[in-house]
Specification:
By secondary structure, the chain is an all-alpha fold. The chain contains eleven helices and no strands.
Length: about 280
């Protein structure tokens, strides 16, 4: 537990520095490297050879570069909606464990490439109303602008609140298993808490503290973000179960692999972008 606490504290410090004290070039390069490493963990749960791993990682990196150079607003919009449809299908398949398991086993490479490439694309173009790539890979000393930083901070806080609420309430009061075949420790009570508590906190924060209008549609999207936090978690859990792996790695002591912390973000960034910018 102490190791978990130390790692969590170090992560908070790292994220704070990344958001507010790095320039644009460093920020988006680090984000891209994290996605590549998460894909490495995804591949490492299979029994493929190291040579094939390297080739697939190079393919992902090359694909990122090609998209960065040649992406158009129209293509970005198409990929975005295709990803939304993909995650809705995953949500539906969560109730059909055997079908989802078989899908993960047979198509782990194409699914992994799609998930990490599209999520990366959504993240680097997050704060951009015209849907062109937002970041500029230039040797600039300019810090990340405050609006973008606070959008990332909002997502991090929302997902963290959802994860923590679900874990604590589920551990203390959880009785009914949510989807036991995929994640035995997740409960319906924890799932409900992971939605209700963050939604209530943000509602109170915006209405009472900031005196800022928080409409019904905003409540709906906060709820959807919280729901898809669990969807991302369960999707990666089903993948790990397909390959009989407990954690995606040991990148974060006490927490497991990077993918174990990134899973909730993979679908949620699409809901957030749709809510804020589309």
């Amino acid at each position: 537990m102490f190791e978990r606490f130390l790692t969590g504290t170090a992560l908070i410090f790292f994220v704070y520095l990344l958001l507010f004290y790095t320039n644009t070039y460093i920020f988006y390069c680090i984000l891209s490297l994290l996605f590549v490493y998460a894909f490495y963990e995804w591949l490492s749960m299979t029994d493929i050879t190291n040579i094939r791993k390297i080739l697939y990682l190079l393919f992902l990196t090359f694909s990122m570069l090609i998209l960065y150079i040649y992406i158009t607003p129209e293509l970005l919009i198409f990929i975005f909606y295709l990803s939304i449809i993909f995650w809705i299908i995953i949500l539906i398949l969560l109730k059909n464990y055997k079908l989802l398991l078989n899908l993960m086993l047979r198509n782990y490479l194409s699914i992994g490439l799609f998930i990490f490439l599209t999520s990366w694309l959504c993240v680097i173009s997050l704060n951009n109303l015209d849907n062109k790539l937002y970041f500029e890979l230039s040797l600039s000393s300019d810090n990340l602008d405050s609006v973008t930083a606070y959008h990332f901070l909002f997502i991090i806080i929302l997902i963290s609140l959802s994860d923590i609420s679900g874990y604590l309430i589920g551990k203390k009061f959880g009785r009914t298993k949510l989807i036991e075949t995929i994640s035995p420790n997740k409960t319906t009570e924890g799932f409900i808490a992971s939605i209700v508590i963050p939604t209530a906190i943000f509602y109170i924060y915006f209405i009472v503290i900031l005196s800022y209008p928080f409409f019904i549609l905003d409540l709906v999207f906060v709820t959807l973000c919280c729901i898809f936090c669990t969807v991302g978690d369960l999707a990666v859990s089903s993948y790990k179960r397909a390959f009989s792996v407990k954690d995606s790695g040991n990148f974060l002591p006490g927490h497991g692999g990077l993918l174990d912390r990134l899973d909730s973000y993979l679908p949620t960034v699409f809901i957030y972008k749709f809510w804020m910018f589309l």
